[in-house]
Amino acid sequence: MSRPPSRAKVAAIAGAAVGGTATVASAGGSLAAAAYFARRVLTPDPFRPDDVVVREVEDDAVVLDTTAETVVPGRYGLWLDNGRGHARLGDVTDLDAAAGTVRRVLLGVDAGRLRPGTARWNGYFVGSPPDESLGLATEHVTYDGELGAMPAWVVPPDTGPTSRWAVLVHGRGARREEVLRALPPLLGQGWTCLVPTYRNDEGVPSGPDRRYALGLSEWRDVDAAIEYAVARGATEILLGGWSMGGAIVLQLLDRSPRADLVSRVVLDAPVVDWGDVLAHHARSHHVPRPVGSLARVMMRQRWGHRLVGVHEGVDLALTDWVRRADELRHPMLLVHSADDEFVPFGPSLALAQARADLVTFPDWRVARHCKEWNTEPDRWEDLVADYVA
C-alpha cells in the first residue's frame, strides 16, 4: 500500500483545489476549513439543544416565542426535559408580532410536565413507539445487521401479518418516530410495517469510523432489515424514506440483491443529490465555494479520509440521482415541499421531470423540511393510501 501524501503535499493539493494561486499557508487554512465543514456533515450529533421558548401554558393552548418553525400551520410536538417529556400542538390561533409570540392549540401532554421555559421543536408530532403513541400492537424485535443486532418495530395491520411489508427509513440524526405518520395509511391498506434502525443511531452499533456515509453504507443495514422481513414471509416490499432515509433507499434500490422485491417507493423530502444539499448549506453558512468543493474532494479521495475521519470514501457523485435518473426502475411517490429550507426541492423536481414515467410528484407548499404531513395530514395520508393500495 502506498504511503499517504505528506502534509506539505496535501497543502499543495489543497492550493490547486482552491484555485492554484493560494500560498501553502492559505491552502492550509482552506484545508482546515474544508475538513471542519466535511466533519460537520458526516458526524452524528447526539446532543440536540432546546430551540424554542415556552412563555405561557394554558388549559388548551401554549404561547411560544415566534421562530421560523413555530409560526407554520399544522400539527407539531415539543420535546420536554431533554427528550424525557413530550407534548402535542395544533394550529396557530394568535400571532402577536409586537410581543414576538404565537399561541397554538395544546392537543395533549404525553409525558413529563409542560411549563414555561425552553423546549425542543418536534416535527414528528408523536414522541414514542407506536404501541405507546398510536395504540398499535407492536413487536420490539432485533435483526442481524452487518455490525450486530439492530432494533426495529414490527406493526401488523388489524388483519394480522401479511406478505406485503413496508420498510420505513428515518432521516439523518432523527428518531424512528419520524416515520410513524405513515403507519395509518399503510396499515389501512394491509401492509405490515417494519421500522428499522441503522448504524450510528442512538443505542445502535456505530460504523467503524462513527461517521455517516450519507447512505453509501447505511443501505446495508436497511437491506438486512429486508432480509429479516423476507425470513418472516415478506414477498413484496415497499420502501419509504425521509430526508437522508431517502438517500439510503435510493442506494439500496441500486445496490441490493433484494431490490427486485421492491414494488414501489414513497419518499418524503428526500436527499436526491447530496452535492446540491452541501452547496446549499455552504451558501447558508457563508462557506466560500472553493472550501465547499475541497470538502467534497476530501470526503472522496483517500488522502483526505484521515482529515475528515472517514473509514470509507464518500463519493457524492454516487448520490446524484438527477444525473443517474436513467438508472432508476422503481415507481415512486415523491413528496417534497417547495418551501423546504434544509433539503432544497430542486433536485426532486428535476428527477420527477426526468422520470415522469416513474415518479409521481404532487405540488406541495408551505411545509418546512420533512413536515409535509404536519401541514396537511389528511392530504398526505390520502396520497399515500391511494398510491400503495
UniProtKB/TrEMBL annotation:
What range does the record give for the signal peptide? 1-27
Name the domain of life this protein comes from: Bacteria
The GO terms this record gives for MF are: hydrolase activity
| Domain AB hydrolase-1 span(s) in chain numbering | 167-339
**UniProt keyword Hydrolase, yes or no:** yes
Query: Gene3D superfamilies from the entry?
Result: alpha/beta hydrolase
Keywords, alphabetical? Hydrolase, Signal
TM ranges: none
What the entry lists under InterPro entries is as follows: AB_hydrolase_1, AB_hydrolase_fold
Protein name in the entry: Alpha/beta hydrolase
